[in-house]
Design a protein that fits this description.
By secondary structure, the chain is α+β, with helices and mostly antiparallel strands. Strands 1, 2, 6, 7, 8, 9, 10 and 12 form an eight-stranded antiparallel β-sheet that branches. Strands 13, 14, 16, 17, 18, 19, 20 and 22 form an eight-stranded antiparallel β-sheet that branches. One of its GO terms (biological process) is purine nucleobase metabolic process.
Length: about 400
């Protein structure tokens, strides 16, 4: 893959289980040798031989004790005996692939493993998550030692938690869960927010160069702690410039731009500009003209929205590093509707029905509309609405109520 191609592999998608996005390991049945929290550490696993603690060699991963059978006559564990760890994703989304990495586990890696996922909205307890309905993403599969196992996933549903199962015991260094963020539209409704934010679904789709660090860092949560947490290109030796393109959360109006060069001192770009892709024409329109940048500085600019945009492009001249790019704005009605409809199509049936009843539909109406998913667009929603019972009253009150409820949730 060249630097200018858009990444296609699921490993180029957002790691939904990143600690920087708020992910956490909420439960594990055992972690005697090495703590479950190591599964989500951002940096690759390390191994330092002959570093022993009170429980043996210190391992940079999650490692359980050796399983034993029921007694002297049956010293071995059964085929069903296994260990598990449950991870709350930092942001809910559609999972496109997972990586189960057994780096540095050679004589103590699991024989097989599997991955499941569940959707449990809100802030559930570990017990509530355990009682949820789980969907198999990766079936029980043979594992190797000291290997990063990549498993593509093809399940069109939004999930909030994953569970890693290992048979019968052993150690896993890291777990990565890559996919597409699907934020709850009700959390964003009526707000101005960062339209490019990774936590809401913004994603870098292409870059001219990613030699020193990833363009996915540009829209990460929080401020960069070090230079390596931004996006930095190699030194350019021709007269071109470097750039990154990002898909926004949805169609929206950009009201302000922040270009943060924190930690980039001798390698800060000289200038930068920001463009947006017109929702109407698909052409790039100027949001921020080419503007002088200062090293190690947060630059903030108010912009006047000319028309709605669906994507953004940051151009830096001629090269260098940017810590963060923020595009504060608001979704248009069309952007909100498209975002909400995608979310409704991807949540489990019980969540869709609950959301529709909370918006104002009856239980029966919510069940019927949820059963009509996937709903491709506003006309499809209207067609499904027309099929709802009971029939309308002479004054049209039932139609008005149903349409108000659907508008409240979906904006269509």
């Amino acid at each position: 893959m060249t630097d200018t191609q858009k990444p296609a592999a699921f490993t180029e998608l957002v790691n939904l289980a990143a600690r920087s996005l708020g992910a956490g390991v909420i439960a594990a049945n055992d972690e005697l040798f090495a703590e479950k929290e190591n599964l989500l550490v951002a940096k690759p696993a390390e191994f330092r031989p002959h570093t022993f603690g009170h429980k043996g060699q210190i391992m940079d991963g999650w490692e359980t004790r050796r399983r034993r059978g029921a007694g002297a006559e049956e010293p071995h564990p059964t085929d069903d005996d296994h260990d598990w760890a449950v991870v709350r994703l930092g942001v809910p989304g559609v999972i496109r692939g997972v990586i189960v990495d057994t780096a540095h586990f050679t004589g103590n890696y699991p024989e097989t493993g599997s991955v499941e996922a569940a959707s449990v909205p809100g802030n559930p307890s570990p017990e509530e998550v355990e009682a949820a309905e789980w969907t198999e993403l990766v079936p029980r599969t043979a594992l190797k030692g000291d290997t990063a196992h990549e498993f593509a996933v093809d399940v069109e549903q939004r999930f909030t938690h994953v569970r890693l199962n290992i048979w019968p015991d052993g150690g896993v260094a890291r777990l990565r869960v890559h996919g597409e963020v699907v934020a709850d539209p009700r959390d964003l409704d009526g707000l101005t927010f960062d339209l490019a934010a990774q936590e809401f679904g913004g994603v870098a789709t292409g870059a001219s160069d990613r030699y020193f660090s990833s363009p996915h860092n540009l829209n990460s949560l929080g401020r960069a702690a070090v230079m390596g947490e931004g996006w930095e290109t190699r030194r350019r030796r021709n007269k071109d410039n470097d750039w990154v393109e990002l898909d926004l959360v949805g169609e929206g109006e950009v009201l302000a731009v922040e270009i943060d060069t924190t930690h980039f001192v001798a390698n800060c770009p000289g200038w930068a500009s920001v463009s947006g892709r017109s929702a109407a024409t698909g052409e790039w329109i100027e949001l921020l003209p080419r503007t002088r940048l200062q090293p190690d500085t947060r630059h903030r600019y108010r912009v006047t929205p000319s028309e709605p945009v669906t994507a953004a492009r940051l151009d830096v001249y001629p090269d260098g590093g940017i810590a963060r790019l923020r595009l504060t704005g608001r979704l248009t009605e069309a952007g909100r509707a498209a975002h909400a409809l995608r979310w409704l199509n991807l949540v489990p049936t019980v969540e869709a029905e609950q959301a529709l009843t909370e918006a104002g539909l009856t239980v029966g109406e919510a069940r019927t509309l949820a059963g009509a998913r996937p709903l491709a667009d506003a006309p499809a929603v209207r067609a499904a609405e027309a099929a709802l019972q009971p029939a309308d009253t002479p004054d049209g009150a039932e139609t008005s109520r149903r349409r108000a409820a659907i508008w409240r949730l979906l904006g269509v």
